[in-house]
Amino acid sequence: MPRCHWRVAARSAIVDPMEITPSPPPVCLADFAALARTVLPPPVWDYVDGGSGTEVTLGHNRAALDRVGVLPRMLTGVATPSLRTRLLGREYAMPVGVAPMAYQRLVHPDGEPALAAAAGAAGVPYLASILGSTPIEQVTATGAEVWFQLYWLRERALVVDLLARVRDAGCRALVVTVDVPVLGRRRRDLRNAFRLPPELVAANLPGGRDDLAHGGTPGVTQVTVDSGAAFAPALSWADLRWLGEHCDLPLIVKGLLDPVDAVRAAEAGAQAVVVSNHGGRQLDGAPASVTMLPEVVAAVGDRCEVLLDSGIRGGVDVLRALALGAAGVLVGRPMLWALASGGQAGAGTALALLADELRDALALAGCADPAAARQLRTVPMG
Amino acid sequence: MPRCHWRVAARSAIVDPMEITPSPPPVCLADFAALARTVLPPPVWDYVDGGSGTEVTLGHNRAALDRVGVLPRMLTGVATPSLRTRLLGREYAMPVGVAPMAYQRLVHPDGEPALAAAAGAAGVPYLASILGSTPIEQVTATGAEVWFQLYWLRERALVVDLLARVRDAGCRALVVTVDVPVLGRRRRDLRNAFRLPPELVAANLPGGRDDLAHGGTPGVTQVTVDSGAAFAPALSWADLRWLGEHCDLPLIVKGLLDPVDAVRAAEAGAQAVVVSNHGGRQLDGAPASVTMLPEVVAAVGDRCEVLLDSGIRGGVDVLRALALGAAGVLVGRPMLWALASGGQAGAGTALALLADELRDALALAGCADPAAARQLRTVPMG
Amino acid sequence: MPRCHWRVAARSAIVDPMEITPSPPPVCLADFAALARTVLPPPVWDYVDGGSGTEVTLGHNRAALDRVGVLPRMLTGVATPSLRTRLLGREYAMPVGVAPMAYQRLVHPDGEPALAAAAGAAGVPYLASILGSTPIEQVTATGAEVWFQLYWLRERALVVDLLARVRDAGCRALVVTVDVPVLGRRRRDLRNAFRLPPELVAANLPGGRDDLAHGGTPGVTQVTVDSGAAFAPALSWADLRWLGEHCDLPLIVKGLLDPVDAVRAAEAGAQAVVVSNHGGRQLDGAPASVTMLPEVVAAVGDRCEVLLDSGIRGGVDVLRALALGAAGVLVGRPMLWALASGGQAGAGTALALLADELRDALALAGCADPAAARQLRTVPMG
Amino acid sequence: MPRCHWRVAARSAIVDPMEITPSPPPVCLADFAALARTVLPPPVWDYVDGGSGTEVTLGHNRAALDRVGVLPRMLTGVATPSLRTRLLGREYAMPVGVAPMAYQRLVHPDGEPALAAAAGAAGVPYLASILGSTPIEQVTATGAEVWFQLYWLRERALVVDLLARVRDAGCRALVVTVDVPVLGRRRRDLRNAFRLPPELVAANLPGGRDDLAHGGTPGVTQVTVDSGAAFAPALSWADLRWLGEHCDLPLIVKGLLDPVDAVRAAEAGAQAVVVSNHGGRQLDGAPASVTMLPEVVAAVGDRCEVLLDSGIRGGVDVLRALALGAAGVLVGRPMLWALASGGQAGAGTALALLADELRDALALAGCADPAAARQLRTVPMG
Known about the structure:
4 copies of one chain form a homotetramer.
Chain A: H1 6-9, H2 29-39, H3 42-49, H4 56-66, E1 68-71, E2 85-87, E3 90-92, E4 96-98, H5 111-122, E5 126-129, H6 136-140, E6 146-150, H7 156-168, E7 173-177, H8 187-192, H9 211-214, H10 237-245, E8 251-256, H11 259-267, E9 272-275, H12 289-300, E10 305-308, H13 315-323, E11 328-331, H14 333-365, H15 370-373, E12 377-380
Parallel strand pairs in A: 4-11, 5-6, 6-7, 7-8, 8-9, 9-10, 10-11
Antiparallel strand pairs in A: 1-12, 2-3
Helix pairs in contact in A: 2-14, 5-14, 11-12, 13-14
């Protein structure tokens, strides 16, 4: 893994490079958190790590996953499981995508292209945030399979323009995030008076003007409410249907928890939904994503694919999601930890660890592949 | 926010003003607790903060709220939710009232009028305690919507006199507290041998003689049992009916947990009930208020309105209460924290924060207004 | 409260009397634990405080009580509740008895007579252990209502003799403990190599020879297994019936958890059963007593009275037991704490506190007396 | 207990013998953990103590056992319970076996023969791991009842040879471990870069070449996946049937959690199954073994015997397993703790303690023998 970038990039010398001793190699994704905490300025760490409100939903995400007992099957004749997975009609190396996250240059100067390249090398989709700090064309140029994540712009014409740009850049899918009518109140960011450094721009917005979106305070301002902001607040299912009709990419709706909403998304043209509470960053008090997953899977049936995010920290979590019926998962914060601490190489290591863990978990559960894992029985644990 | 009043008001110099460094602005109601703890003498803090007995019910109130998962709805077309709410036939700025709390000059020299004025400015009802340290007329003079809270006096003629005085002062409703046949045993107060300072009087009692009520030890003495005390202990449903007949203000019964009692209250003329365990200050071992809320709502149907108090600490808690069927909530301790640390301005800041949090929570849950929140589904969380 | 006895009685000066500062007056029974811990030598504290095995059942007892939510009723017209209770056909001042505990001179030189006198003054039964360190006649001479607790002697003739002696001494009931076929393995006692001081004798055993019972190591040796020991190990329901026929005192069976056993006890002549896991000191891994109480109450119906012990620490716990159907409770360790720290006066203070707490709890729950509390509804709390 | 062996055996002087003060005698199995932690190099301790992944399953094993409340029966006429138990048609001193564990010379130079001899002296079966650091013939030479544990070798001819060798050595049963298609990811071992010391060999593998199995890193390498490894990965029920036909020893299948798998094992010829998650060392996220035990017992009926392992730490745990229907249990880590801290004598002390605890637990529960314990009722505890 390369030397920590922050020694170069940090504007204020928060960490004295001389005091950093060589770290042992990470053995799990959580190890990257410890590394990232060392190199990131505390307010940036808080921005990445925090949730909204009392962070009760942030905690529920982990607690609920830990309570999912997966019942392994023995003597199934499985040698080395395959991780290959079809999502949205394309094949990927494992049932995992990199969750869309804003302003990745905030944690590492190589930003989005580094993380996308790592995802591409690992054979998994990279979900590029509309709030990326690098233009989408530079992200797709890495050769990764890129899904573009959209917050809806106020001016519908700009949406149309952006859809064309995204398609031309070679993105494979459009992910509409629906759980951000306003930003969740993230108390850590409020306490830190967290602001983006001026050199970071929302590179996918018209003219790169991130101030259109949130005036440089991603954790604080209500992105879509202020009249001057770029994002539309009062979206409806009719808007979603319009989007499906004006976009020839596969459509994914991200940020649902209610099975009724999932069915409506499928009926409005979504080929996949992502069951998510935005990693505990939006409605504090919402249930854990994994708590709602089985109901959503049952409700949508084969009308669309179901992905899960919020709280995934290792291969066993992927197995849990599969066993509860998900087609795959998105991994968020761990990828930022890895990017922060090691750039593209760090992210690659993290994805390789995740693949190793998932392969082992599948083998130990007696599953030849992710599809077999969806037949596993789960047992609630105290 | 003004400088801490206690620098002036404290009789003993517990806090050296020179040592107080400027506090960061509060980002949530809990921040006022930290501020209040700094400025209040420890026994006063304990009086405000404590519960009865082992404080197990005090703890249940929070734990039970944290386990209420609220399932948000997406793409409902909501831009900025309205918080406006009808309670008892009048419209308020949000579904929140300031809970009745005794002797508010104990925590800040401006006392009841300051908190009432903040409530008035925020457009929410202020519930004035019969044990206020300021005459009710000075409270209503702030222009706030005032609901008067009654502990029943032994002499029925005095009750009649007080009802007339309350009506003449312009109060909008009468709140009868029914869960204080005796005071709960508050161990912190007993340990501190807590007593009111002599200059504080029960300004609404005949002759301002608070000794009539409890001899200056609000947390300790059994208010209504001692033969010399002012309050009647053995109240019954017949007394409540008598009150309803002799009072032309809307009647609210506060301090019920049992659905059977709630129905009886409605049948005895109550236009609203407050599901409450008195903030964990009366029967230690009673269930959390929010645990009983759904049953009470189902039992009373449309016979009366149902409010909740005990444990509300933020906008998400209000959303939880609404989702479980409450028409609104009362907020107690956080308002004393804010009053203690910043007087009227502090209380105003707290109410503004609460409104901001509730507005965001409604938006994130896809609700156009509090009524819509009552249709949300809740999910128990581990 | 008198000065701590241990300054005189302690054989080794573990506590320097000069260093003891005046303690604040206890406000609840738990305060006596802190006092007792100060004055007792650590191995004696451990003997009193500890449970068997991993102490999981010891912990369950409290946790299960804390989860019993009691739903109070309002406006029931109750002024000052009465605590008076009929148990075994006699009236007592409250539904509480002092649990049988061995060798009370271990914690205070005044021992059994002091605790019995306090119970007598408080109007509650004192359960005298067969392993008392004072002859039963000196205990009944205090004027207390004494129930005699029996571990079954190997020689049946000695049992007959003892029954006569107990009756002649004026005991009001016979309590047969059935949950000690062997002593639980109390790891603290084993680690401390705890032994009785030589001056303590089992004053009710023939010739005062406590070595007959357990060779001076009450927490360690299997009392009834060793062939040389005084107690009979392999008791059966036939023995219990024989006892009922040879004893003209009311018979209480203490130490049951299983409803089936409770019914058999009633059928064998018991007028009361005590649902108890021996305060977590016998079978580690047994359920909490309060967990089994409702089933036992339902199973025995009106065939016999049901008492509860194990974990009672205050008036609210008594209310919980009553609400779950108990006729009363036994209180153990808190009485030893109070005896240790203040002799008879300390024990009297503890019982007065318990009565105050129970009176307040009944009033707050809307109950005129203990019988009314048995109609209360309980609500499980998370 | 003899002096700690590690003073002699340790290659690096991690523990200075001069600093070791005499330890108090162990009163429970957990005490041996503290002793072992003192004498073992930290990486060896971690290898013994750790689980896979986040160790959530490791924790579930204990938490789930602690929640099993066992309802004791009183007055059953039991004096001293018998512990004698029939397993696989042979009688043992108690319903306990020593779980198979690799490379026991890692924790004590006397290794497998010491532990086997202790088991033999205690009258319980010793399960010898195929990865033993002593040839099986030296283990059976101790006179213990030895059950041989098999990881399946890649070359079927070697399996046949090994079966003959095992039978000739006098082993009483063959235990096939089925939950190790790959090794669980044990993060502690990965962090410690744990490797076997070179002088340790897999003494039962052809030519003693442990590198065939895992290249000296038992906690790390995927034993059976690498093409060069000795163990076969993709086993099936057909292989198990083949084994049953080629082995005239009673067959035990170890490492099942799913009742469906247990039934298949019985149908394939297993005379017993061991419900086990490998002590939390294989699939992290698997349910606690004890959670699945009742279902497995119900599913197999009388088709085969059911044993439990994973988390057993004392006599009460054995009682819990019996009450839930197990015929017996295996005890793993505690035996290594005892071996590490005291060699054969230590292991003997541990087994004697376990027998004492179980005898007391049976007596306290009113059971004459292990079979009676299987009729006990269990009660879930919060």
